[in-house]
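Thread: Modeling a multi-component assembly for a lab meeting

Hi all, long-time lurker, first post. My supervisor asked me to bring a structural picture of a complex we are working on to next week's group meeting, and I have zero experience with this. I have the sequence lines for every component (1376 residues in total). Could someone generate the structure of the whole assembly? Inputs are pasted exactly as I received them:
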Amino acid sequence: MAPSPDPNSVGDGPKRDEATTKVPTKDPKKKDDKKEEDLSEEDLQLKQNLELYVERVQDPNPELQKAALESMRQEIRASTSSMTSVPKPLKFLRPHYGTLKEFHKNMVESDLKKLLADILSVLALTMSAEGERESLGYRLTGSEGDIGSWGHEYVRNLAGEIAEEYTVRQGEEASIEDLMDLVQQIVAFHMKHNAETEAVDLLMDVEDLDLLLEHVDRTNFRRTCNYLTSAAKFLPGPDDMLVLDIAYMIYIKFEEYPNALQIALFLDNMQYVKQVFTSCTDLLKKKQFCYMISRHGITFELDPEMVENEVDREMLQDIVNNTKLSEGYLTLARDIEVMEAKTPEDIYKAHLLDGRASSGPSADSARQNLAATFVNAFVNAGFGQDKLMTVPSDSTTGSAGNWLFKNKEHGKTSAAASLGMILLWDVDAGLTHLDKYFHTNDNPIIAGALLGVGIVNCGIKNDCDPALALLGEYIDKEDSSVRIGAIMGLGIAYAGSQNDQIRSSLSPILNDAKAPLDVIAFAALSLGMIYVGSCNEEVAQSMIFALMDRSEAELGEALTRFLPLGLGLLYLGKQESVEATAEVSKTFNEKIRKYCDMTLLSCAYAGTGNVLKVQDLLAQCGEHLEKGDIHQGPAVIGLAMVAMSEELGLDMAIRSLERVLQYGEQNVRRAVPLALGLLCISNPKVTVMDTLSRLSHDTDSEVAMSAIISLGLIGAGTNNARIAGMLRNLSSYYYKDASLLFCVRIAQGLVHMGKGLLTLSPFHSERLLLSPTALAGIVTLLHACLDMKSIILGKYHYVLYFLVLAMQPRMMLTVDENLKPISVPVRVGQAVDVVGQAGRPKTITGFQTHSTPVLLAAGERAELATDKYIPLSPILEGFIILKENPDYREE
Amino acid sequence: MGFILTVSVKWQKKVFEGIEIDSTLPPYVFKAQLYDLTGVPPERQKIMVKGGLLKDDGDWSAIGVKDGQKLMMMGTADEIVKAPEKAIVFAEDLPEEEQATNLGYSAGLVNLGNTCYMNSTVQCLKSVPELKSALSNYSLAGRSNDVDQTSHMLTVATRELFGDLDRSVNAVSPTQFWMVLRKKFPQFSQLQNGMHMQQDAEECWTQLLYTLSQSLKAPTSSEDSDAVKALFGVNLRSRIHCQESGEESSETESVYALKCHISHEVNHLHEGLKHGLKGELEKTSPALGRTAIYLKESLIDSLPRYLTVQFVRFFWKRETNQKAKILRKVDYPLELDIFDLCSEDLRKKLEAPRQKLRDEEGKKLGLQTKSSSKDSDVKMTDAEAPSNESGESSSTAAHQEGASSSEKGTHMTGIYDLVSVLTHKGRSADSGHYVAWVKQESGKWIQYDDSYPSIQREEDITKLSGGGDWHMAYIIMYKARFVSM
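Re: Modeling a multi-component assembly
Sure thing. I ran the full set together rather than chain by chain. Output:
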């Protein structure tokens, strides 16, 4: 220690030593240096001054006290604060904290006492013991005033203590008014200083997010809302809804309607959607909203309140009804030059396999032809042309009729329906092509034509309701295959529409004692799709009765699983609303009770990321049961359904499933590949791909089958070369096993779905929104895959067509103000999470510049590479209307 | 009361505007109107109004069509799809035996306990269609007296087994055949530790073929009577020469297989065959009045349709009292030319067909016929004298007269293609494992490992040449390549 002539310091010597050691410093050498420098002229002066002030504060003379306190405050405020070291005045005052505290206690109520409290509050920042919340205590007794002047660190610390205090007081049910004043100040301070995230955190802690509305402004609302929406994914209900509500209000406040609409759709709040339309006055923007609604796949009627002009309204309704989807998709296809139809052989690429592929058997194999039918349907989906079904039928050889008849019995249903898939979204052409099949006497063909009509109309609404008009006639026909075709067609065409007319014709079937089980099962499924996520009581009731009416034997049938599934779909994503029905399900026959339980639970919490439900379901998977229990399958799939909403939960679920795979029983293992397929649908993650590839050679053929189908699902619409190669090898590995080969073919068809222009992912709008109908379609297929042998490999293979509900072009198509496609340069790259990041970070990385229309892969994001236009939606997916930028100057 | 409505009708991609409906007339009239516009007959029109179909006799006021409403019509004048007149036959519907042919290869054989030697032999022999047809002609009644009961039974069992293999999809259990085989050849019933012992496949092969040749001999006609001999028999003409006395004699014999002797110099099948056709024998020399060493050199005098080659891999080791195995690698080709193992007479016969074959191959490769004849033997120049091709063929045809009377127009070429390989894996003949590798008519190679047939690649077949512990060829069979003239 340097010689110090100051007598004052002698007494404090050891004490100060102690204090300095407390100060966090990284290495002792530095500390020594500091000690040397500590006593530089300046510091010494400061230290002496502060000590003097401390003494003076204790002086009985109020004048002196005041002057001392003022000076002390000056010193503290003047010192620059930083995160790494304690400001000098605070450091030098540390030894005196105790003394000042003691003195403060004995002071009489006065301004001076408040002033001292202020200073103590700041000192408590470094001195107060954990959990004491002294800083907050002194703050509350101190003078009111600008707390921001004490620096960021102080405010941040205060916010933390408020949150703690709040929970304590909530427990004691004490008043929180004094805290709220402080909160107001802190929030205002944070919002002004680019610390929106901290303001939001504090408000969430004190459960008063409404305050946020007063403090957001044009500069920070975007970042605030961004944080709110991403935080919502991790909040337990009902907090998440609250948070999104606030975000919605902020967006509306700042007229950021596209974002507001997104949140309204997320909340599934039609009132909000309507509000967006009524608040916005720009017709062009409304068109953009319509595109967004149509992508989400919900039924939405515009009324005069939203759009006054009738002509405009009709045009907007057309967009909502998706009538232009086919056109846009074909524009994309032409631009990418993939219009040329592909045959199943183009997909199988048997010539790449050395000699091991079987040498085209002399007779047609019905199973292989059926596989080819599906492959052809998936690959040419939406293109309107193919080489098997749409070839002109007047040519004598190789005509459409011929391929149709190369399928056996129920296979003809799928073949006729495949025409619907090929002409997907193009209602006029589709109906024209399907018409000829209505005039035969062959029931499976009629059934296929009916199903085809449903598929063509998937997601498309039309004033004339052609699907209902045509299919309605056949619901009550004699032949059950025709009935199923009509019922399933309606389910696909009107998914999510909540159409009363269909309900009144389908509901009676559920409770018809004479109806065969398969008709009832498909009726339940279709009603579940039409009323997906509606919580409709009446439909639920009739399904519950239908389930109760089933005999013991019927409950053992594979198709019975569609009844609980239909019921579950009614509550898709509706969380607690399911509870009443779940209660009723406990009274079911024990054969189906648990299956129903799991299905309801998993559907209700689908896409919520609810950790507690994930744990519940995991516990179910972990049980080792006697044979014959089938409820673990839906539990595993449910796990994926709940966890699929956000990336972190998704990764955790993948890891958990790996564990389940190792320790689970056989029926659990069979469902695991399907769950993986759902988690990474149309998103071929390499790790998952490897796991599935390994499982595709599993000794249990059912595990292998579901792994193969899942390989198709994760690669769906990606043309992923690696998966394609794996499947090709599997096709030679399993060339002798007709069932497994069929699965391989289906998976190959899925991977090349829409020649790589489609996606099955139910998520869109930067993974925020979950299309309920899309998820319903995928989940139905997965449940069917739980009993592959009796459903997909049996005579109900057409359930594969439920995937059409999830099929969407993975495109970004820019249109001008007249909705004509225009080509502009865009950058497409990997999306970067920028939530809560400082400044204006780049939102994409590793980008390439293309001209629209472009394809977007999973996890990719696009941004305009020109200033010439302004996009009307910040989320560049699907149809984007571009407005010319008035400020644009040609360089 | 009547009123007139104006509606528009959408049909396919077209919209017909301003169609008038007179509500007093039934909708059928409206449909007739549309028939004029679209050419779709009314009975095939489906007109959709608000989620329902327009009935022919419906009431306009009840349907609730409004003025200016858009209607949608579906319907085409296309031909209605008809099922093809000839129903399509699906593989799944076929009886089991026809499904088998669809696979492109026949079933495997169940191992009945160390019977892989027998299974692989049967599979190899089954690949000879001529043998199969000869067997199918063998009738139960047509049994000649000079064939004993057991031979007859074995022949019948063979026929049955071949038939079963062709019909079945799943592996066949050769129980009956095995029983008869053991009855006929009791040496195959040897037991060891209560189990039937592994046997030498070559012995099985030879015995079976011998039996078949006996029983398939047609009792009446003398010529071309022995079907088996016609297929597999190789006539050898040997010159026996004694160096000491200078004596020389010649003899002919007929064998069913050529032997490929394996010594240190032999690296290739060809060398082994040459080696096998030369031999020393000891016999009494009439000239010297004592036993002397004779050299025997054999040449092939007539070619079989199927040339069987046995690799002499096993020899009796006195010390261990065991059949030991030579592991030496001996390469064999997929295409074997035995021209230089043939006798002079035979060579002459072969020349013309060989030339023809070369020409054809040359044509295939896009070469001129003339240029391909450069490295042929002296005889070629003679044949080339009448420079045009027709002349050439006529001259050779004369040459060939009487050579092969049975198959007119087709001629042997001395070139053979590999069709089946019987391999052995292991260190001694009576242990290890036998497997058959058979080329199908489709050109694919199938490995018959007892009951499991599996497809193999052609390049892997030549890798069975030994030199390690992998399967190595023991008996291989070549099929003659013919040329038609």
